[in-house]
Amino acid sequence: MKAVYQKPESLTSETTIYCPGCGHGIIQKLIAEVIDELGVRERTIGIAPVGCAVLSYNYFNFDVTEAAHGRAPAVATAIKRLLPSRIVFTYQGDGDLAAIGTAEIIHAAARGENFSVFFINNAVYGMTKGQMAPTTLEGQITTTTPGGRNPQIHGFPIRVCELLSSLDGVTYLERTTTSSIQGIISTKKAIKKAILWQMQQKGMSFVEILASCPTNWKKSPADSMKWIKETLEKYYPVKVFKDPGNIL
Amino acid sequence: MRLKILNGCEASAEGAISAGCAFYAGYPITPQNRFPEYMSERMEHFGGVFIQAESETSSINMLFGAAAAGFRCMTSSSSPGISLMQEGISYLAGCELPAVIVNMVRGGPGLGDVTPSQSDYFQSTRGGGHGDYRTIVLAPWSCQEIHDHTYLAFDLADKYRNPVIVLGDGLIAQMYETVRLKPTKKRFPKKPWALDGCSGRKPNSLKSLFLTPGVLEAHNWKLASKWARIEKREIRCESYYCKNSSYIVVSFGTCARIAKEAVERARQEGTDIGLFRPITLWPFPYAQLAECLKNAKKVLVVEMNLGQMIDDVKIAARNSNARIFFYGRPGGGVPDPDEIYKEIKKK
Description:
The structure holds 2 protein chains of 2 kinds. By secondary structure, chain A is of the alpha/beta class.
């Protein structure tokens, strides 16, 4: 019988801790597929965040290290500078990258560090059970904004791609979504481009991926997809911010 | 033999380069600004990596990455910067990663001032960050010694897979002395645990997170046995005229060097006195000090702080009948030999 589909070699057989409908499972599988397709598994080093995806080192079948909360870009900076021929990426959530680790990502980007960043934006803190994230939308109910996020009190959500687009050290910058099959296909393309640009030593390649968190949004997986499409994508438009050329 | 006139920052940096340091990250802070300046030039010369980070927080996490990739790495800073690094040092200890951290201590608390101090003794010897861990702490008293200690620190860090702190101060950082340079190290220990791509082997991972019940406790017990090994093997100290002396001065680092002059003077005048100087502040030389205190009636602890090492002296002296006195200068105060001599005479 001909196998038409199989698990990528870059994933282990470990069962993930992710909830039903969670975006992490989809995105980590896409990263694993891309690494397989580019044949770089044996020279890839991933940096896991603090948050639900901290256990990535159990799921990726290549070298992965933990990093302190928000510090993945500093860790990646050193690894890539010392091992320039390896493929290095950070995998970070919105709290990790856009709250506690804001300084680290901005300065790694400004230095033009030559690694890839996969930024998973689900507008909520996942592992700590649903508190306000820096990307939580106005009016969005979380466990620390029980009346909805009020900018007068809680400030405004951060658009990370727009913020980074002014920095010359970032070469490739795209926001994608996982709310539809087309979106997932585009996300995989963006992941591939990010790694290919890294291989061209062009500076930081950065993909923001809008993802679901049904448990903390208190929505079904299907309604979560709908919410990304109808609400999240309105504030965070799916867009290529920077792309130096045709690499695929 | 290579001799050079260097200040403490440069001497330490040269010790690191001789030891094969491939990565330096740092952030400017007085009184050790010469360190990153010197390293920026020297690392380029040797083909190493120098990064001026956006903060000390970032510096220490860059060290985490460099150590994870299997390279010898270091940072330098001064007290407020070292406080910012404590989270990262805890992660290094938890993940068992070797790294060297030089602290040119200045007066605190808070922003304090930029003059020499020893007020980071507790922070250095008690872990400093969160969790149950220890760092090896070396306390040099000269430019030669900070060179030698930095060189040694890389070997100790690799040997035990643990961060090592070299605890200098603002005086050593800025003082120039002749330094005999160590030969360049050629052979390094293998690091099969490092993350450099899983070519021809199973993937490696580094972590300090252990969620399965009992696993973190087992990890802590494993670390404890490592620290017990360090306590057994790595104690370093010096004593001058301590054998059978009835009066012992205990001091470390710069302060010990000043105290030594006062002790010499008191001896010349017939006082039966010796000096004990811990070189490793952790592991602390409890047994060695206890031995020196056998016939002691009086102990004077001299520190450039409000009394921190004195806690360890009291532990060492728990079976001794000697009375323990303290003389300290906090907040960047540096005693002169005459001042310590007068204290010796007063007690």
